[in-house]
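agent> call fold_tool(seq_1)
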Amino acid sequence: MLEVTNLSVSVGRKLILQNLSYIFEQNKTYVLMGPNGSGKSTFAQTIMGHPQYEIDTYSRIFFNKENITSYPVEKRATSGIFLSLQTPLSLGGITVFQLLRVVLKGKKDALSLKREIMKLAKRLNISQEVLNRSLNQGASGGEKKKMEVLQAGILKPKLAIFDEVDTGVDIDALKTISSYLRHFKKNKTIIFITHNSRILDYIQPDKVLILKNGLIIKDGDADLLSFIEKKGFDKL
């Protein structure tokens, strides 16, 4: 599904990821953890193709066996990659319906799309008032994260990366989001990026990866989470 080979990434002159190699398999759920500044969000943005992040010439990113290293954001998105941002953007004058109409490029008629949005919004406890607003304007942390999850649910990507989807949400919103994501993750590759384990109280990962100083220093099953909670990252 997703394979990164010798992935080294810099911002300006600062090297953030160093020769990172890993294969993320289809139909598996991964958790990427690490201390602040370890490169977690850089990894997510690099996979999505953010132009701010400079990839070394020998680094490679493969998605479904296709080399997407040079693909721009738009082409990666249409290939089936979705990134939920740590800090979701606000878009003045654009509703989530209007945004998804543009992204889907007419693949769904307006009435069907609106019905699908409303059905999923009900499941995620998103009010009609929030749907009618400009995207994320005046929204709480929980509302913003729910809107990110709604977009993922409508777009149905093959690979979804959720960057700190559990940050800034209350316990009720977290339970609602987690309940939907347990259903959503079927037949997809999911990567949850987090520096704590709140969402992992509700979603069981297949693999836990620890990123530190730009390197994956350890991977393991869910038992690794218990070790991190007791000992911290410094003991690895």
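agent> call fold_tool(seq_2)
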Amino acid sequence: MPRTSERGGPRTRARILEVANRLFMENGYDAVTVAQVAREAGVSSVTVFNHFPRKEDLFLDRAGDVLDLLHRAVADREPGSAVVDSLEAAALALIDDGNALTGYQERSLGFLRTVAASAALQARARAIRGELEVALRDELVADPAFDGDARLVAALVVAGYATLFVENASRLLDGEPSSDVAADHRLRLSRLFDALRHGLADGA
């Protein structure tokens, strides 16, 4: 196919993502190469890697959104408000917005099936979880208004939410109605943050 300009910046990135997602979901992640994605998108493999350092990042591309969410929840919270309260509000907003990061949106079934079929994607997802924990810890350490245990809060928040996401996705893949999963998610999310709120020091 004709080559497109490789200077498109965000447009090039969006085109690469569109092509990669289609190829991965049609053929399976492990069966598609970066070279195939590049060829279909009309760019070079070098351009693909300039935008996405790892092949896995072509599919698991929402980590940046989560990093932004964590940053805003900590840095932009109201003066005097607790971090756990702000993080809970951010998680509840994902529900209200119908965000795929809840793990139970029916439109995400193709994505979830693709991840479930690839050990490489699952390994990268676990690595991203670790990166998010470190990022949240660093946000809390840098926040002069936070005087709790940054490492513990970050570990519990990220692990707790990741557990809910994975269980939501598994239930959806098993055929449970998304409405049932959604109702349980809101309830369990409340339990998670209540446990964090009452089990951590006041500084959290």
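agent> summarizing second result for user.
The CA atoms of residues 24 and 32 lie 6 Å apart. The chain has two domains: 10-55, 61-202.
agent> awaiting next instruction.
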